[in-house]
Structures are given as structure tokens and as C-alpha cells.
Design brief:
heterodimer, A: 601 residues, Methanol Dehydrogenase, Chain A, six-stranded mixed sheet, five-stranded mixed sheet, B: 175 residues, Cytochrome Bc1 Complex, Chain D, domain 2, three-stranded antiparallel sheet, two-stranded antiparallel ribbon, 5 strands, 46% helix, globular
């Protein structure tokens, strides 16, 4: 599974770094994340807040924002993720072929180095839903790139020269790389994509110096593959032996999905890493009886060993493709008069969850789009046999409907009330700022057969906005303590861009038409917008250089959004001939690949 | 004389061609001229669709809709309309014929250059596609000729026994 290439030079430099000790690297990175000038990891900090204490750009002056400079990545595909800034250098990544650029901020973004891996283009169609990449990670003087072909490469941050590379998975078996790695202490964590190809997915940790695999925890399978022990709990109770195997029929778990292509967060005090696992394969629920543990699960693993401390399965026996991979945002807030260490997660299934991140206790589970209809809510009674389970409305159960039956009007659609586009959290307002989809679907499962490296889907679906509505997205502010929407700004299309919250009282996000928007963190009032060259599915970030605050975002429409919405949606219930009832994204924007950087005049 | 005959012949052929192209797709005239066990064929013997005046579609068009929206739409977009990732097949089918279609589906296609990175996988070993490739073709042919609108066909003919039999034998299991 693994191949490591080391040159003589890197062995020497690795040895030199080892002498400095891995502890140096960890405290260094945690400290670097607190520097407001820089943006050193994908979500700004280990807590995944996407919050910056910079306040030069504020509610009073954001309306005067201008484009400071731009940069083309040279690739015309869906651009997810965002750049990193470390000191005087910005690191920009691109979708396949996964070019990485180091740009000199002291010299108008002059290219310091460029790295373009050689990858077999046959990986392209194995990547479900566009050739996206969600960004690079930094640590220990290296830039880590998770390539499309599921290789993890360490580049020297100064020169762009490869230091080591590790093979995490095999695209011929449907395993690909789209996610951003996260550096935790002396390890680089990375997940796998391939839920639509019957992959048994895992989170893996590689040694930061050698690229050697340290641990790998699977989402489903026997206990030694899951990395669980007798202390691993779910909702306060030990999960017991064979917790996963008991919930699959036969060997289906071996092609069971549970992919790990979302974001990773980390609590240095608890030494736990958090992430979510995706949909069980196939999309036909009838073909995989049982709860299919631990797909659709929030995981808390020990960063050193990978052993799970707790798990919580949000959507047992998924029937709708509600991947659980979205980010886990860590905050400390007061609930019931006590300060709690919280984890908040906006799931594809339309529920916003708040848990105690130390114990995995479920505190809040509420709909963050009122149109969510597949469930009446989660059973919060600790004495109930169904504690923590969502109550499924049988009318919207594709399992109850069975194979070859079209279940209609399910909200949300398979792309979820929110997909990978990460939310932001401001400790000042104590609100989460959440980009959402407002789309429903019809879903018809049917029997499929498995072939390695081939799509393994097994359902037909069509998508449309909720009845009587034309907006396909909302940008909302959410109170994670109570599970309530504070304000909601309707958007024509799904909001597929990661949000940024700032101490200037301004929240930023991008739209699929291509607008960068700034809104008031307290009210949601729009303060500024600018139309970039292509639709935005990237994440907004900010940094300060030379005493000036900048806001940057990648444009480049694509991903699931570019596939589902390019031609516009139709409502199949409007009857024959109702064509073009809803806006087609292709009427607003076209392919692109550009970084736009904004500043005050 | 000879020249003149040739010119007339050319004009006639050109006129015929222009009429034909108004009615045809990449496989020629899609009009169904015969049916066998619920499956329709054009005059050249290629699989085709049949839409009755009340909008009822043949089984294969319907089945093709279902299978397309599982196997193909994640790249080619809903209803064959294309995406930011892959071309609109309702346009492609206007120029490529039945044989070419089968060849591309089974063998894949690469168009990688500085401006494009379009790669279609080879589905030749994928039963979920190859066992129903005719259904998908018939559906897309109907879409390319604007014979069925976007979305799920509301009415369709019963699943023919021949279709069930074929799927059982091709998938090697009860479908």
C-alpha cells in the first residue's frame, strides 16, 4: 500500500530535524496559527473556526474594498479550498493536475517556485464529481499535498522540491485524493475519497519526517482495523466487540465506503483529532441491511495512536447519501451555566449537532434548514433505546420504498443541506456562519454489482428547490448552543464557498455566480459584493502583509455544484414540459481558475 | 450533359441531406419502424425510442433515464445537459452514431491538453453500465431529438419480459 522515496539529501535533513525534536514542530505550528498575519492551516486554526482577529477591514469600511491583485492557476476546474500564507509567501494549489505555487508577497505575487506532479490522467474519471483539491497543509518547513492519485507528497516549503512521498491508496481501486491534509505534532493526517467506488475508507497518519505510515483507522471493519478498544464509547457507553461487523451483512463492509474526504480538526489539550466518515456503499440501502457502522459518524481519535475515544453515528443505515464528512468546529461556550468544550457540526442530513468534544455527549441536534423533512428529529432521551437516533419519516425512507421505487420530495437532496464548504465561528458573536444548500430530491435505489475501480452507485436521483421556492441556497447564522437560526440570507444558488468570520464584524463568503460577498456578522446585512471571473466554491481567507489586511478567494466553478446546477434544475412534479423553471448556473458563469485578492484602497 | 446531370444529382442529394439532417441524429433517422418484444428499431436496425401521443415512452427510454441518472449524470449532468466537467450528451448524440457511442462507453476517451482534461473511463467491465447500455443510448437518443423533456418520464410501457430476462442473464443475478 505504501511506497516511500527518499533522496540522500532528505535523509540528512530529516535527521537534522529529528535532532531538533518533533515537539518543536508541534508547538511551533499551534503558535503560528495564533498569528493573525498568517493563515497556516486550511481552516485557520486547529479548532477549524475560520475566524481571524484582523479588524482593519470592518463593517464601516468594507464597502470600499477593491481588488488588489489576481493570479491565474492555469487550470479550468472546480477550485475548492484556499491558499495558505506563511510570512512573506502565499501557497496556492489547483485542481488536477494539482499544481502548487509559492508566491512572493513582497514582489507582487512573483512565482518563487511551482510544483506540478506527474499523474496518470486516468485518475480523472475516478474522482466523483470533478477533479477538486481542498488545499495544502504546512508543517515543519514542508508543504503537504494530497494528490488526486491518493499520493501524499511533502515539498520543501522554500524550494518546492519533493522531500518524500507516500502512496495512501490506489486509484485503480477507486481510491483518490481530494482532501486537505492536517499536520498534528509529528504527523500528517490524510483521508481518502471513493465512496461511489466501493472503497473501504480510512484516516491515516504519516510521519512528518519520513513519510512512513504510523497508523490507519478504517471507518468500518474488524476492531483492529477500526482502531477501537474497550474504552471506545458511543453516547457514553462502550461500543463493545465487533461493533462495526455486526451491522453489515456478510462482507459488504469491505466495499462499504465511509470515506474521509472532509476536514480534520484537533484539540491539543485533549490530544484528539476530529473528522467525519461518509456514506456507506452502495446508495441502494436495500443492498446493505444494518446500521452500517461506522459510516456517517463523527470520530474522535487519539492523535498519537489513532485509537478512537468516542464515535457518534448520525445517520445509521443511510438511505439518502448524507455523507458525514463536514467539518467539526471546536468552541468553548456556556451551556446550562457551565463552560463546555464543544464540537459543532453541520451535517449533510440537515441537522446541526453540538456535542461535548471530550466525551461525545450529544447536547443539541436541530434542523438548520426548516425544509428538512426526512426526519422529525433526534431522540434526545438518554433512557430511550433509540437515544441519539434520528426518527425517519417513512414517506421519505428509500429503504421503506424499496428497490425500483421512486421516493419523492425528500429534503435535503443528496448534496445535503450543507456539503464540504466549511462554516466559520466567531467567538465574539458566538455564532456559526454556515453556507447551505436548499435543494430537495427524488431518489430511486436499485440493485448494482461491484467491479473494482468502477462506479458503485445504485440510485437514480433528481434534484429541485423546495416546493414553492426558487432560491437554492441560504447563508445563515446559527446559535450552536440552542440549535436556532439567528438570521438567514437567501441565495439564488447553493452557497458552496467556505465562510470567513473576522474581528472587524464582517463575515465573507462566495457564491456560485462568482460574487465575493461581505455581510454584517450581527445582522447578515450585505455590505459589499464583487463579481469574480468564475463561480466560487473556494474558501475565503484573510491575512495581513506589510501592515495591510487582505481577503483572498479562489474562483473556478465545478464540483458537485457545477455538475448538478450547470444546466439548471427542473421540478419533476411540475408535470411534463416544465423546462427551465429554475436558474441555470451556466447562464451566470463559466469555467475559471483564479485567485482574487482584495484590500482597502 | 454529363456535367449538368451531375449538378442536378448533387442538388438532389444536397436537398435530401438537408431534409435528413433536420430529422436525424448521429445514427440517422430515429423514427421507429419496427418493434420486437417491446424494443424499437429505426429503419437501419439501430435501437431507438418510441413516444406515444399521450407522452407514454417505451420501457427502454424509461430504463435509460433511470440508469443514466445513476451512472452518467455525476459527470454529464442531469438529463444529458452537461456540466462544468463533461459535455452535454444531448448534443454529442446529434453527431455520433450508435457504434461510436458503444465504443466510447466501453473503451473510454481521453482529451487531455493544456486547455482540457476531459477523461471518460472505460466502462467495458462494468455490468451496471454495459448490461443497460442500449437503454441509456435509447434514452439519450430521445433527449437528443427533443422527443422527451427533461426529468423523469411520467408514463412508460410495462417492462417487457425480454428486458427482465436479459438483465437477469447479463447481471448474473435476479435484478
Amino acid at each position: 500500500m505504501r511506497c516511500i522515496s527518499l533522496t540522500m539529501g532528505t535523509v540528512i535533513s530529516a535527521a537534522a530535524l529529528l535532532a531538533a525534536g518533533p515537539l518543536y514542530a508541534q508547538s511551533d505550528l499551534g503558535k503560528m496559527a495564533q498569528n493573525a498575519n498568517d493563515w497556516v492551516m486550511p481552516a485557520k486554526d486547529y479548532a477549524n473556526t475560520r475566524y481571524s482577529t484582523l479588524n482593519q477591514i470592518n463593517t464601516g469600511n468594507v464597502g470600499k474594498l477593491q481588488v488588489a491583485w489576481t493570479f491565474s492557476t492555469g487550470v479550468l476546474r472546480g477550485h475548492e479550498g484556499g491558499p495558505l500564507v506563511i510570512g512573506d509567501v502565499m501557497y496556492v494549489h489547483a485542481p488536477f493536475p494539482n499544481t502548487v505555487y509559492a508566491l512572493d508577497l513582497n514582489n507582487d505575487g512573483k512565482i518563487l517556485w511551482k510544483y506540478e506532479p506527474k499523474q496518470d490522467p486516468s485518475v480523472i474519471p475516478v474522482m466523483c464529481c470533478d477533479t477538486v483539491n481542498r488545499g495544502v497543509a504546512y508543517g515543519d518547513g514542508k508543504i503537504f499535498l494530497h494528490q488526486a492519485d491518493d499520493k501524499l507528497v511533502a515539498l520543501d516549503a522554500k524550494t518546492g522540491k519533493p522531500v518524500w512521498s507516500a502512496t495512501n491508496g490506489d486509484p485503480k481501486k477507486g481510491q483518490t485524493g481530494t482532501s486537505a491534509p492536517l499536520v498534528v505534532k509529528d504527523k500528517v493526517l490524510v483521508g481518502t475519497s471513493g465512496g461511489e467506488f466501493g472503497v473501504q475508507c480510512s484516516l491515516a497518519a504519516y510521519d512528518i519526517n519520513s513519510g512512513k505510515l504510523v497508523w490507519r483507522g478504517y471507518s468500518e471493519g474488524p476492531d483492529d482495523q477500526l482502531l477501537v478498544d474497550d474504552k471506545t464509547t458511543a453516547l457514553g457507553k462502550p461500543i463493545g466487540k465487533d461493533s462495526s461487523l455486526k451491522t453489515w451483512e456478510g462482507d459488504q463492509w469491505k466495499i462499504g465506503g465511509g470515506c474521509t474526504w472532509g476536514w480534520i480538526s484537533y484539540d491539543p489539550q485533549l490530544n484528539l483529532v476530529y473528522y467525519g466518515s461518509g456514506n456507506p456503499s452502495t446508495w441502494n440501502p436495500v443492498q446493505r441491511p444494518g446500521d452500517n457502522k461506522w459510516s456517517m459518524t463523527i470520530w474522535a481519535r487519539n492523535a498519537d495512536t489513532g485509537v478512537a475515544k468516542w464515535v457518534y453515528q448520525m445517520t445509521p443505515h443511510d438511505e439518502w447519501d448524507y455523507d458525514g464528512v463536514n467539518e467539526m468546529i471546536l468552541s468553548d461556550q456556556q451551556i446550562g451555566g457551565a463552560t463546555r468544550k464543544l464540537l459543532t457540526h453541520f451535517d449533510r442530513n440537515g441537522l446541526g449537532y453540538t456535542l461535548d468534544r471530550e466525551t461525545g455527549e450529544l447536547l443539541v441536534a436541530e434542523k438548520f434548514d426548516p425544509k428538512v423533512n426526512w426526519t422529525t428529529g433526534v431522540d434526545m432521551n438518554k433512557n430511550s433505546a433509540n437515544y441519539g437516533r434520528p426518527a425517519v419519516v417513512s414517506k421519505y425512507s428509500t429503504q421503506a420504498g424499496g428497490a425500483d421505487h421512486n421516493t419523492t420530495g425528500i429534503c435535503p437532496a443528496a448534496l445535503g443541506t450543507k456539503d464540504e464548504q466549511p462554516a466559520a465561528y466567531s467567538p465574539e458573536t458566538q455564532l456559526f456562519y454556515v453556507p447551505t444548500n436548499h435543494v430537495c430530491m427524488d431518489y430511486e435505489p436499485f440493485k448494482v454489482s461491484y467491479t473494482a475501480g468502477q462506479p458503485y452507485v445504485g440510485a437514480t436521483l433528481s434534484m429541485f428547490p423546495p416546493a414553492g421556492e426558487t432560491n437554492m441556497g441560504n447563508f445563515i447564522a446559527w446559535d450552536g448552543k440552542t440549535g436556532k437560526i439567528v438570521w438567514s440570507d437567501p441565495e439564488l444558488f447553493s452557497v458552496w464557498s467556505g465562510a470567513l468570520a473576522t474581528a472587524g464584524g464582517v463575515v465573507f463568503y462566495g457564491t456560485l455566480e462568482g460574487y465575493l460577498k461581505a455581510v454584517d456578522a450581527k445582522t447578515g446585512k450585505e455590505l459589499y459584493k464583487f463579481k469574480t471571473p468564475s463561480g466560487i466554491i473556494g474558501n475565503v481567507m484573510t491575512y495581513q502583509h506589510g501592515g495591510k489586511q487582505y481577503v483572498a478567494v479562489l474562483s473556478g466553478v465545478g464540483g458537485w455544484a457545477g455538475i448538478g446546477l450547470a444546466a439548471g434544475l427542473t421540478d419533476p412534479h411540475d408535470g411534463l414540459g416544465a423546462v427551465g423553471g429554475y436558474a441555470a448556473l451556466s447562464n451566470y458563469t463559466a469555467l475559471g481558475g483564479q485567485l482574487t485578492v482584495f484590500a482597502l484602497p | 450533359m454529363r456535367t449538368r446531370d451531375g449538378a442536378i444529382a448533387f442538388i438532389v442529394v444536397a436537398a435530401l441531406l438537408s431534409i435528413a439532417s433536420a430529422l436525424a441524429d448521429g445514427s440517422g433517422d430515429p423514427t421507429a419502424v419496427k418493434s420486437e418484444d417491446g424494443k424499437y428499431f429505426d429503419k437501419q436496425g439501430n435501437s431507438t425510442y418510441k413516444v406515444q401521443s399521450d407522452g407514454t415512452v417505451d420501457w427502454y427510454t424509461y430504463s435509460g433515464f433511470v440508469r443514466y441518472h445513476s451512472e452518467c449524470h455525476v459527470c454529464h449532468g442531469p438529463d444529458g445537459m452537461g456540466s462544468s466537467y463533461a459535455p452535454a450528451l444531448i448534443d454529442s448524440l446529434k453527431t455520433i452514431n450508435y457504434g461510436d457511442f458503444l465504443g466510447v462507453v466501453a473503451g473510454g476517451r481521453k482529451n487531455v491538453n493544456t486547455a482540457n482534461e476531459n477523461v471518460m473511463p472505460a466502462f467495458g467491465t462494468n455490468k451496471n453500465v454495459m448490461c443497460v447500455v442500449d437503454d441509456i443510448y435509447v434514452y439519450l437518443r430521445a433527449r437528443a431529438n427533443d422527443a422527451v423533456p427533461r426529468g423523469r418520464p411520467t408514463k412508460h410501457e410495462e417492462k417487457p419480459e425480454a428486458a427482465a430476462k436479459w438483465q437477469d442473464s447479463c447481471f448474473g443475478q435476479k435484478s
